[in-house]
Design goal:
By secondary structure, the protein is mainly alpha-helical. About 80% of the residues lie in helices and about 0% in strands.
């Protein structure tokens, strides 16, 4: 029960991070927002570690998994942004989410030997369907067919997301936040280099930083804090239970984005999204049982 609860909480917090990231990305370059949010999350983890709230033991395993996770994270973000830029978002966003759930599930089943009762497999299937329903955004018009490149980037985003979840699960739990901190540091450095390359190529400028208002800094900071918090929740949840269950539940992160959009922006839920939320709740009950 606790594992399922933490898995759903992880999805919600990841969704909250995406909500604030989406708000900031409407005003500023998404890659800039992602990079700054990454540095904020890293600074928060380091501050809490130095304050004694968290502990970090940088063993060889944590260093390896932390660096590998950072590469997966940067790769997944780059693919996700490219996929959403190509579109259609209503198809490629669920594709990335489902791919990010299926990959750890396959790894958990084939490599870690995780087996479940038939009701649990039914619940996992229901969650995968719920992910598609929750992430799909109907706009009243027929969706354009995705291109081969769009599909490739969507799957690539899922590989990056799934890789991060597997790596965080494999990192030694006794080492505390070492792997998470290194993952976020590696991700922040890679994205920072991308931003620097854009500046050198004159596709961006240092004025982009000066144009960020205080309210936007707070929004970007919220993105980084929630994202780092979701990383911590996932590590705790997957340490208590199955990688397959927790990763599938975590991929319900569009649910958190939708809920905040409903509360803050007063956006209405589409019928398919309501059905998806109901399926997710039903699947969570089955997994808890």
């Amino acid at each position: 029960m606790l594992t399922v609860t933490l898995g759903v909480a992880t999805a919600l917090v990841y969704g909250f991070a995406d909500f604030f990231g989406a708000i900031a990305s409407r005003r500023h370059r998404p890659i800039l927002v992602a990079g700054l949010a990454g540095w904020v999350g890293l600074a928060g983890l380091l501050a809490l570690t130095f304050a004694g709230v968290f502990h970090a033991n940088y063993s060889s395993a944590s260093i390896f998994y932390g660096l590998l996770g950072g590469v997966f994270s940067a790769f997944g973000l780059a693919c996700l942004y490219q996929a959403l830029a190509i579109g259609p978002i209503s198809i490629l966003s669920p594709l990335a989410a489902v791919s990010g759930a299926v990959i750890p599930a396959i790894y958990g089943s084939l490599v870690l030997g995780e087996n479940f009762a038939p009701t649990a497999w039914l619940a996992i299937a229901l969650v995968l369907v719920a992910i598609v329903l929750v992430a799909y955004h109907p706009d009243g018009s027929s969706a354009a067919r995705p291109t081969l490149a769009g599909l490739a980037f969507g799957v690539g985003a899922g590989i990056g997301i799934g890789g991060v979840l597997i790596v965080l699960h494999l990192a030694p739990a006794t080492d505390g936040v070492a792997a998470i901190t290194l993952m976020r540091a590696t991700n922040a450095v890679i994205l920072g280099l991308v931003v620097l390359a854009l500046i050198l190529a004159k596709r961006a400028s240092f004025r982009d930083f000066a144009d960020i208002r205080v309210s936007m800094w707070l929004t970007i900071s919220a993105t980084g804090v929630f994202d780092a918090g979701a990383n911590l929740l996932f590590v705790i949840a997957s340490g208590l239970g199955s990688l397959t269950v927790v990763s599938v539940l975590t991929s319900l992160y569009p649910l958190g984005t939708i809920l905040l959009a409903r509360i803050v922006l007063k956006e209405r839920l589409a019928l398919n999204q309501g059905i998806g939320i109901a399926l997710a709740l039903a699947a969570s009950v089955l997994l808890a049982l």
